[in-house]
Amino acid sequence: MKKIAVIGGGAAGMASAVLLARAGHEVTILERGARLGRKLSASGNGQGNVTNLNMGAEHYFTDDKPQLSHILASFGAADAVAFLEGMGGIFLPDARGRVYPASRQASSVTDLFRRELARLGVRICLGAQVKNLTYYQKTASFSVEWGEGQMQADAVVLAAGGKAAKNFGTDGSAYALAQSFGHTLTPLSPALVQLRTPPSAVRGLKGVRVDALLTVERANKPVVSFRGDVLFTESGVSGDAVFRASSFAQKGDILRLDLLPEVPASRLDSLRDEGDLLCVLHAALARQVARLSRENCNTLSFFIKNFPLEVTGTLGFDYAQVTRGGIPLQEVDGGLMSKLQQNLYFAGEILNVDGECGGYNLHWAFASAHAVAEAVQ
Where in the chain is the domain with CATH 2.40.30.10? Predict the structure, then answer.
């Protein structure tokens, strides 16, 4: 049995603690916030999209796809569902393979973890932001210090998240703990985030929502396409399709929106002026399409099927769901232990792994926790 400190009480930290405690270790979670699982409770638009049946490394961005593939092969979607249902509840997929609790309530997933942690006797320290992490060779142990607290640990799991959504307590400060042991960081950027566009392109459209086929275009070539909600905001676009596309979009790309994906262009060829768009498009969108048609001497049908928006940036880390970048996978072994420091492990978003929208990031939290728990002896 080892005495283990898990730094971070999010999805990866709680999963690590559950699995390590089940293996007989003495586990303490150190969470800087006032409660566990705040970000988990807001996941999946509050519905808790925990994994995806279409699991594979092709849905992720990382510096080491072979190692990621190995970890995912050892803990797939069925394993994630079995792990969660082992704590209680029922989890079901939708038509796109996204798996949710039957309650469609993300906070209930957090409650499952809290109940299991209590059952297992895991010590939980809230308001405990770790400031110093030191390894002593003589005792082969870590000194973990926070506020007025301190503990010794045989092993440490760094699961403190990335830099996205600091309102949930993940502001990137935990990277310094890894860097103190010689670890590096790949470039950090926000992912699964709202995209900015020129203000003139979305003026008057705030609050308009449309089911569209969104294509990211770069140098006049399509990069990727997604069908789903697009919500216009005062600074750009949001919604399911946009979050999915944001993993691929870059500044300067063009978003092409097919505003009526189920209607063939031929059926729209007879449209001549804005008045013909009644019961075809939202009135605000109709005005924008008519304006584009006049200014560019092209048909209404063209802009209905190819509504253009230039990507000028994102809303940044504060509004992002996940962080792209982090501790390189190449700096850890197959059990996610540091190659630079014995018995220092990593789990979740702090590593350079981020997934597409659709349950992939929560799955990585659980899969990485499983890898760590299997490796700790």
Answer: 195-314
